[in-house]
Specification:
By secondary structure, the chain is an all-alpha fold. Helix 2 runs antiparallel to helix 3. InterPro entries: NAD(P)H_OxRDtase_bac/plastid, NADH_UbQ/plastoQ_OxRdtase_su3, NDAH_ubi_oxred_su3_sf.
């Protein structure tokens, strides 16, 4: 088989794949349009979940600590994924793989220790932190006054 025939066959395979993907997308959009409901009313566009009508607005102001915890979750979830893959191939990677995984865990633990030390995981309000630093004696004196 010549090189030009091989290249042409490769491009045809890609063209068939692309046409199939675009055709499938168009079919799904057209099917939803033709089979979808046509009812229009004021309450049609109102969100409805679990049989409860919505109250208030969905725009809540959340503390940035919620996003910080979400990022921690993603980081440590990815860590678990890597360690699972490492544990599945433990016999193939040998001692070198073990030391690489140990270094990986140590770096992540160092990051966790740093986050604890700077207070990124401390959710206590500022007032409670001041009382905790002052100790129980200062709190007893404050209640006696």
């Amino acid at each position: 088989m010549s090189i030009t025939t091989e290249v042409t066959a490769h491009y045809w395979a890609f063209a068939v794949f692309l046409a199939g993907a675009v055709g499938l997308c168009c079919f799904m959009l057209l099917g939803g349009f033709l089979l979808g409901g046509r009812a229009h009313s004021r309450s049609k566009n109102v969100p409805f979940e679990s049989g409860i009508d919505p109250v208030g607005t969905a725009r809540l102001r959340l503390s940035s600590k919620f996003y910080l915890v979400a990022m921690f979750f993603v980081i440590f979830d990815v860590e678990a994924l890597y360690l699972y893959a490492w544990s599945v191939s433990i016999r193939e990677v040998g001692w070198i793989g073990f030391f690489e995984a140990a270094i990986f865990i140590i770096v992540l633990l160092a990051g966790l220790v740093y986050l604890v030390r700077v207070g990124a995981l401390d959710w206590t309000p500022e007032r409670s932190q001041r009382l905790r630093r002052a100790g129980p004696v200062a709190e007893n004196q404050r209640h006696q006054q």
